[in-house]
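ARCHIVE CARD
CATEGORY: sequence design from structure
SOURCE FIELD: tokenized fold
FIELD CONTENT:
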């Protein structure tokens, strides 16, 4: 299958070259890799220029936006600049972070997964991070059927059905919920061990957890699903404060009547799916 990669990057000089080298090492190369330089003030653009000169699969796009590295709107706005360069027809599309090292068979395997089962709309591997002893350990903080936002691949049919990615915190949850709403499956391949060079959340400022709660409201979770999801997150992170931050964000969005990310019927489906999953875990 032919595929395209979009890499939004803001001040990624420490990791970008390793990410791009791992793309060049792939057994199945992409048609094009769009490198979106989002207002970088370090040597990120120089690294991009080096790789575009080295291989024609790389193409740089310069944009100017906020200098603050926040989850959600900044990265998706940059992604969408690359999306405008994608041709009308493709096999699958990849949103990739600039701090990732992929195994060399990564995209060959993803291609095979999509070809073998057209019902699969989103696929990816598992994230590993390095501890202080230099050992790589599994750090996949959500369910095993969730593909991390740092390395998501979408078939064209699925990406079109979900209407692209939402420019908001929670985009990498709502995309999977909408994929299921439209009848697509999510597939994770445990043999694809992706090295995540920057520990999860390190680049985000203190507002991120507050925004997570706002995202739950905008995804039409309702209060109790939001509370349960926030409590689970707080327990996994061993951080009770994150529960309060999330709920504060949720209540703030509700009071302000923030716009929803999904339609009413999509929200009904999402709540029903969430409750089924909660009950399954409670009574298994």
């Amino acid at each position: 299958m032919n595929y395209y990669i979009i890499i939004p990057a803001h001040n990624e000089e420490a990791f970008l070259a390793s990410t791009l080298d791992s793309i060049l090492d792939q057994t199945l190369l992409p048609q094009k890799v769009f490198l979106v330089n989002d207002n970088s003030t370090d040597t990120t653009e120089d690294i991009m220029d080096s790789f575009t000169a080295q291989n024609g699969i790389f193409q740089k796009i310069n944009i100017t936006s906020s200098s603050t590295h926040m989850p959600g709107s900044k990265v998706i706005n940059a992604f969408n600049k690359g999306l405008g360069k994608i041709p009308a027809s493709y096999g699958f599309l990849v949103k990739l972070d600039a701090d990732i090292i992929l195994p060399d068979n990564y995209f060959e395997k993803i291609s095979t997964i999509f070809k073998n089962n057209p019902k699969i709309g989103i696929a990816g591997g598992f994230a590993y991070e390095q501890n202080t002893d230099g050992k790589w350990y599994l750090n996949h903080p959500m369910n095993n059927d969730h593909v991390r936002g740092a390395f998501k691949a979408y078939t064209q049919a699925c990406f079109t059905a979900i209407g692209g990615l939402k420019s908001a915190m929670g985009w990498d949850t709502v995309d999977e919920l909408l994929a299921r709403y439209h009848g697509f499956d999510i597939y994770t391949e445990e043999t694809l061990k992706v090295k995540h060079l920057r520990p999860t959340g390190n680049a985000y400022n203190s507002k991120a957890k507050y925004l997570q709660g706002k995202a739950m409201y905008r995804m039409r979770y309702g209060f109790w699903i939001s509370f349960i999801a926030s409590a689970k997150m707080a327990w996994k992170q061993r951080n009770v404060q994150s529960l309060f931050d999330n709920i504060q964000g949720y209540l703030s969005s509700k009071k302000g009547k923030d716009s929803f990310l999904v339609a009413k019927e999509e929200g009904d489906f999402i709540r029903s799916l969430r409750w089924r999953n909660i009950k399954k875990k409670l009574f298994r």
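CARD ANNOTATION: The longest strand covers residues 185-196. The domain at 3-196 is CATH 3.90.550.10 (Spore Coat Polysaccharide Biosynthesis Protein SpsA; Chain A).
SHELF: design records, drawer C
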